[in-house]
Amino acid sequence: MNYFTLKSVVAGSFLSLAAIAANAQEADTTTMTTTTTETSVMPSSATLFGGSGQFRTWSIGLHGGALQPIIPFGTNDYGKYDVNLGYGLWIKKQIAPSFAIKLDGHRGKLSAKYDDYDGRAPQGSKPADFETTLDYAVALKGVANVGTVSFLSRQKNVGFFVQAGAGLAGYTPKSDDKDRTELFIPVGAGINFKLGEVVGLTLGYDANFLDADNLDATWANGPSNKDKWSYGYAALEFTLGSRTKPSLQWNNPVALMYDELKDPTLRQEVEALKTRVSTLENTVNQLSADADGDGVSDRFDKCPDTPAGTVVDGSGCPIQMQATASTGTYENIQFEFDSSVLKTSSYPVLDQVSTDLKNNNGRVTLDGHASAEGSESYNMNLSKDRANAVKTYLVNSGVDAGNIAVNAYGESRPIASNATEEGRAQNRRVEIKK
């Protein structure tokens, strides 16, 4: 069989198979779409950052083509060579739209005639034709998808790739019938065609570099001219997994991003988000407005016209001195039940005490008190902690600690009845006396 006939048979066979597979896939899709309302065979729409779980990533390929004991570049041992049928399969894992790992193998026969060679010295006394059975050539390859012709489609239809790897080749030259196993390096390129959601057609070419010079068992040319062979092939690739998911190999992330940015629904969501942000900004501005400058926003200020510098409570109204709650020069410092933590409402009073003491180098006495809940010893310690909390604040504000005296009276000196919560609240205090 000559080269032209072999090429025609191989190409025709694979194109026929591709057409049959494509028609079968289309018919299967149509049938399933029209006979069920619950299950769709069309792939779901993938999102840009949805993860690899939304795609199919495994595939198998069946291939066949032409084996030749030469490559189209560099120096070859034979000028007159045969074109023989090769065939094999691969298993591929798509890692990303642009890269995959492939376990690829092929086999067949390599042969050439001595009628035309480039003058190299034969190993024996007489040159000979050669024929070698390639039992297997298995390699692990990295496949890089380097381009497409459908840049604005979410799913590519045509793509270009390059690949390279390393593997083992087992072969038997007919001249000595001796089995050999050697390392080889495959380097190749090709083009992929998407025929359907399951089937694709690949046309490719690999140049295989053997790490030995014994493929023909005839030439002894040394390591400077190691043997090589080429494999031009056509393949049908079948994507595995549920057809409700798109294939990662055919996914186009650039087009996916482009489509998502132009998606009217997304634009509507963005505009709605901008409106919500604007509304939120207006609300924040309203909440932060404080016309009288008392630190309480107008929305919550019950006394909106407080004069500047007036000490106000949480509602924006002036804090009134309670005669029953003050027995010293300054307003008493109140505390929550079973607590020695200062309230923020007491800071203005303490700041005034601090200013007076620092300006006049004055002295002050802090008397701690407690309500009648709990034991007397516990309340004594609690009243001491309250007085010390006030002292700590004053010292931290710059008052000399030596000018502050601390007393603790526990529950022994109430200023209101402990029978009511209102009275007990007044008794939880520190009195400030000059």
Your description of this structure?
The structure is a single chain. This protein has helices at 3-35, 253-262, 264-288, 347-360, 376-396, 421-427, and strands at residues 58-68, 84-96, 99-112, 130-148, 158-173, 180-194, 199-210, 228-239, 333-334, 364-368, 404-408, 429-433. The radius of gyration is 45 Å and the shape is elongated. It contains six helices and twelve strands. The chain has an eight-stranded antiparallel beta barrel with strand order 1-2-3-4-5-6-7-8. The chain has 434 residues and is α+β, with helices and mostly antiparallel strands.
Characteristic key phrases:
434 residues; alpha+beta; eight-stranded antiparallel beta barrel; four-stranded mixed beta sheet; 6 helices
The termini sit apart by: 120 Å
Average predicted local confidence, pLDDT: 81
Structural class: alpha+beta
Radius of gyration: 45 Å
Considering DSSP H and I runs of 4 or more, what fraction of the residues is helical?
Answer: 25-40%
Order of helices and strands: HEEEEEEEEHHEHEHEHE
**Number of helices in the DSSP assignment:** 6
Main pleated sheet: 8 strands, antiparallel, barrel
Task: Write down the overall geometry.
Answer: elongated
Q: How many β-strand stretches?
A: 12
Please indicate the percent range of residues in DSSP E strands (runs of 2 or more): 25-35%
Order of adjacent strands in the largest pleated sheet: 1-2-3-4-5-6-7-8
The low-pLDDT segments are 1-42, 320-328
Short recap of the structure:
The protein is of the alpha+beta class and 434 residues long.
Topology:
Elements: H1 3-35, E1 58-68, E2 84-96, E3 99-112, E4 130-148, E5 158-173, E6 180-194, E7 199-210, E8 228-239, H2 253-262, H3 264-288, E9 333-334, H4 347-360, E10 364-368, H5 376-396, E11 404-408, H6 421-427, E12 429-433
Parallel strand pairs: 10-11
Antiparallel strand pairs: 1-2, 1-8, 2-3, 3-4, 4-5, 5-6, 6-7, 7-8, 9-12, 10-12
